[in-house]
Amino acid sequence: MYDDQTNCLELTVYDHDVAGKDDFMGRTTIDLSNIKHEKTHTLEQILEDGAGTITLLLTISGTSGSETITDLTNFTPNPRERDEIVCSYGLLKSFHNLKDVGWLQVKVYKAQGLQAADIGGKSDPFCVVELVNARLQTQTEYKNLNPQWNKIFTFNVKDIHSVLEVTVFDEDRDKKVEFLGKVCIPLLKIKPGERKWYALKDKKLMRKTKGSILLEMDLIFNHIKAGIRTINPKEDKFMQPEQKFKISIMKRNINRVSQIVSSFVDTGKFIQSCFDHESKPRSITAFIVYIMVVWNFELYMLPVTLLLIL
Questions:
Q1: What are the residue ranges of helices labelled H in the chain?
Q2: Which residues contact residue 136 at a Cβ distance below 8 angstroms, ignoring those fewer than 6 apart?
Q3: Which residue range or ranges hold the C2 domain (predicted)?
């Protein structure tokens, strides 16, 4: 966003036509001047002429300069403010606004030793912080492998079993992004006030990648609200990456099914061999086991046996 831009965001919906021209389906506008910064808003906009509705997540983030609320260089902690937040999530407030489970504050200080994504051996890194559908990001630090963002982000916690995702990207000139590293932190693993370096990992979180990031988090939540939320369905995440078809995954799944089928076949052959008297000791043992089961079997044993297998 730039100062000389209009504050109206226009969204247009088309029907994609492979052979010819895309067909216009509807349009809507959003006044950005009324949108609060550094917060993810879920909006449902009605398209013109009753052409339907469109649901979207909209966030204005990465602001810098005079934004003292989000800029660590101008931030002064207020213990009284935190005490008020603790009080608002106390036991006496357990049945007030059940969807508001807790409050999370994330301080993104800096990163070091990032991967060089540009030809000159540098990167233009920025950091994206996500909690389910809430998504905020820092400003971009250009030509830097050790960026200092110094940002504070605040999230409303709806499910204490959610996972905080912190991802570092490289910004290119054409506004495309390149993945540099990621870390995922379950909310229940957060130690309030602990400033810690986290090693960045790849997209699948299987291996370490170059670089680490310095974070400090503070979490306050109501245990009763969190318990009530636990028995409800998990919140759907709108921004899910598209799953790409991979031959290796398909082969692995086919092998799994083949192994299961072969194990059933082998079990059937073994049981059949007991009745065919291919091996006298095996048939005698099977007969004794059969007699013992019939003699001692009670109906309640069936679910108990299935429970033991589970």
A1: 79-88, 223-230, 247-275, 280-296, 301-309
A2: 38, 39, 40, 59, 61, 62, 128, 129, 130, 153, 155
A3: 1-45, 79-202
pTM exceeds 0.70: no
Is-contact 70 48, C-beta < 8 A? no
What angle, 0 to 180 degrees and rounded to 10, lies between the N-to-C axes of helices 280-296 and 247-275? 90
Domain ranges, ordered by start, for the chain: 8-59, 72-230, 248-309
CA atoms within 13 A of residue 190's CA, in its CB half-sphere: 25
181 burial class (0-12, 13-18, 19+ CB within 10 angstroms)?
buried
Of 69, 62, 35, 212, which is closest to residue 137 (Cα–Cα)?
62
Q: Three-class SS of residue 191?
A: coil
Cβ-contact 90, 222 below 8 angstroms = yes
d(CA 140, CA 171): 7
CA 143 to chain centre: 29
* Cα-trace Rg, the chain: 28
Higher pLDDT, 247 or 174: 247
Question: Which residues lie closer than 8 Å to 39 by C-beta, 6 or more apart?
Answer: 59, 134, 136
Cα separation of 232 and 101, whole Å? 13
Instruction: Report d(CA 280, CA 290) in Å as an integer.
Output: 15
pLDDT digits (tens, 9 = 90+) for 257-285: 999 999 999 988 888 888 887 788 888 88
Instruction: Please report the sign of the dihedral spanned by the C-alpha atoms of residue 198, residue 204, residue 208, residue 209.
Output: negative
Q: Which fold has domain 72-230?
A: Immunoglobulin-like (2.60.40)
Residue 214 · residue 111 · CB < 8 Å: yes
